[in-house]
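=== RUN LOG ===
request id: a7f3
mode: sequence -> structure
chains: 1
length: 376
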Amino acid sequence: MAGGVNRKISAASARAHTRRAKQNSSFRLPSGMFRTTLVVLFMGFLAWAYQAIQPPPPKICGSPDGPPVTAPRIKLKDGRHLAYQEHGVPKENAQYKIVFVHGINSCRHNAVVAENLSPEIVEDLGIYIVSFDRPGYGESDPDPKRTAKSLALDIEELADELGLGSRFYVIGFSMGGQALWGCLKYIPHRLAGAALLAPVVNYWWTGIPANLSNEAYYKQFQQDQWAVRVSHYTPWLTYFWNTQKWFPASSVLAQSTDILSQQDKELLPKLFKGKPNMDQVKPQGDFESIHRDINIGFGTWEFGPLDLENPFPNNEASVHMWQGDDDNMVPVTLQRYIAQQLPWIRYHEIPGAGHLFPHADGLCDTIVKALLIDEK
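=== RESULT ===
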């Protein structure tokens, strides 16, 4: 009796097992189809990743879908346009003619020297200043081939189109100050003098000892270390890195106040009082303005400042560098080293000053007088 029951149970179990096997086999993909599915998913991921890292095309000023052109502009030899703004006395009456180069996330309206120079000095010395939108900013056309050299040649062409004469002065602030190294390299014969105000430092410039570069590099916020590293080693990822939401991007681009010194924070109200809306700074998009800026600023240069020889061996012009010793954006240690290795630079270090020192009362008067008359 027990044997019969066991046989019935065994038969029922066998039938149940067969049913489960058939059910399971109905959900099993053939090996070829499984591989095809994986390939399709992987290709879909690659397509998504490619789209994610591609910056949108710029909205060119004056194009049918782009912002309007409201500023005076010159047309360069390659067909691009540079927008500019004039300050001070009329250039026909000027004794001194200055081209001002703005920093990152700024435009021609942010001519810090023109904004803060006293009217008395402007009139007494006869100072004319022209500020311009660097390529991709404001109403200047983007330059996908932009380099340190091309920007210097843009400045030379701007000066020629405006009739500034055979020699003119250049003043640059922050990333605009860094751009002046290109002027000293490629168009020194056109310069009557140069002033670099807190010029941004590239941690990969040749000639700077690795221990100094590393020390300065790791003093940055970790998010800024990553932003700079990405722009140097994988510039094609810069747009994605600074627009993704998983990790914090550059604190400078985010305009975080955490990176500011005490003096910088005190100067902020003055800074924002005359600052234009962001739609005037980068109406053509982020990539051809701020992202290309950091790719060039921290990319691989064909030269470094320490490769330069004195561009004015006969003292026909002077070069000044101004740096705050409490600047959290540009390391004073590297600036000191560069100035020590280039004795033809007249280095001015400002105690207690941060990155925004040109906005401090009276300091632009001091800077311009040193460049134009005090140290001739």
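=== NOTES ===
The chain has 14 helices and eight strands.
Residues 310 and 344 are 6 Å apart (CA to CA).
=== END ===
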